[in-house]
């Protein structure tokens, strides 16, 4: 339980740091947010929980394939905002787009030979 709390606190600190940096330097916050820190920390925690090279390789490869469907959201949201869509609506629509693309990846990825 202590490990879970530590992981949650670390994630919270990362999010808070990005938000604070973003108030002054939006591009710098975007850079920090784009770093695969969560993925790297997740791999480290997973390795300590289950030090299995094949399991880690599968995890890293699946992470790559699931990052791809999330990327269009980061283009759709600015387009919507610049065209007058309310922030919350743009955020929700961007998230819906990502979920639809994730479902597409789960449905079509294995059919295309992608191991998830």
From TrEMBL:
Q: Which residues cross the membrane?
A: 27-50, 62-81, 87-106
List, alphabetically, the InterPro entries matched.
Answer: BV97_02767-like (IPR058117)
- Keywords from the named record: Membrane, Transmembrane, Transmembrane helix
NCBIfam families given in the database record: PRK09272.1-2 (NF006749)
Q: What is this protein called?
A: DUF3147 family protein
Tell me the organism.
Qipengyuania soli
């Amino acid at each position: 339980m202590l490990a879970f709390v530590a992981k949650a606190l670390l994630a919270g600190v990362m999010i808070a740091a990005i938000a604070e940096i973003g108030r002054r330097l939006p591009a710098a916050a975007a850079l920090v947010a784009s770093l695969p820190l969560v993925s790297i920390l997740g791999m480290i925690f997973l390795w300590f929980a289950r030090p299995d090279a094949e399991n880690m390789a599968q995890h890293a490869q699946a992470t790559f394939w699931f990052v791809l469907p999330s990327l269009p959201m980061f283009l759709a949201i600015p387009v919507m905002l610049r065209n007058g869509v309310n922030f919350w609506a743009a955020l929700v629509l961007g998230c819906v787009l990502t979920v639809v693309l994730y479902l597409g990846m789960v449905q079509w990825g294995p059919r295309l030979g992608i191991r998830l």
